[in-house]
Amino acid sequence: MKNYLLACVLFLCLAACNNTGTTSTHSTQERSEASAEDSLRYPQEKHLRNLRQLTFGGNNAEAYFSFDGQKIVFQSDYAAWGVRCDQIFYFDLKAGNMKKQVPRRISNNLGRTTCSYFLPGDSLIVFASTFEADSSCPPPPPRLKGKYVWTVYDSYDIYVADLQGNIVKKLTDTPGYDAEATVSPRGDKIVFTSMRSGDLELWVMDIDGSNPKQITHELGYDGGAFFSPDGSKIVFRASRPKTEEEIREYKELLSRGLVQPTQMEIFVCDADGSNLRQLTHLGKANWAPFFHPSGKKIIFSSNHAYDKGFRFNLYMINLDGSGLEQITYDGVFDAFPMFSPDGKRLIFSSNRNNQGTRDTNLFIADWVE
Prior knowledge:
Layout: E1 8-9, H1 28-32, E2 48-53, E3 60-65, E4 71-76, E5 87-92, E6 104-105, E7 113-118, E8 124-129, E9 150-151, E10 157-162, E11 167-170, E12 178-183, E13 189-194, E14 201-206, E15 213-214, E16 222-227, E17 233-238, H2 244-255, E18 258-259, E19 265-270, E20 277-278, E21 286-291, E22 297-302, E23 313-318, E24 325-326, E25 334-339, E26 345-350, E27 361-367
Antiparallel strand pairs: 2-27, 3-4, 4-5, 5-6, 7-8, 8-10, 9-18, 10-11, 12-13, 13-14, 14-15, 16-17, 17-19, 19-20, 21-22, 22-23, 23-24, 25-26, 26-27
């Protein structure tokens, strides 16, 4: 996913999974309108209550709940936790927040990691890492004039580790990028993004890594996929270059291990890849989708409403493409939303309350329909 992460800006990790941001531009007057008991929430954020901050430094993204909804796993580059670039951390929500309670690092602090997720039973975590290719942090993406790009590291493979950080299994071992793995609520399948067919496509494999099957086939980056609550559908973000110039640019960047995530839309398909359709037609960058607990709506991050591309908010839309609704109102960056398995809470990353820094922190709130 990246990551950071998250697009992203941030934009993302988005990886594809990663990212960062800047300071919030909302006025102190707007903030003061929120109640003292819920001061981190903007008044317009009617679906959120009891919003609280979980992390307090660095870039923290792609926080996902355990199957029992009591724990989270996420990626962070927070130097105070002894890491040099994105690593995977585990945290029990009963401990409160991470201002004083340091989360447990799951990854081995070698290479770079992204896109972690609990396996059924909540005692194992799946994530991607570059550590076998190089123990050092890989270089950041190059600065290309007029282009925002993510690096698609070909050294990413997908691993399983226990909560003590011991790697117990390697799930992928093919040349090229394998990352962005998430798990079906049914506990039987994993969806992930891979370059093994020559393009960034979605693949589904059994929970033990066996029987990989490609489920998307169109040119463009397909990633950030999640299963519906009943495991029957998959939602994901994708770019779809159409013109000769767009196709040429996409292929040229991909040959250098880069993607430009500034034009993405949300797509939905059945878990086997059938009945594929484009859900959004908003333009700009729409990404980080996740199913509403009902299975009938999608929450996602988008900058479509703003002239400047760095501002992202959360939106929700019906599966038929109707009913677009804005959920968050931070002045810079909100992304990586995930509902708890019982549908009562929402966790996401935001630049709010970062005291003028570029920190992206984790926030959790009660969800109000």
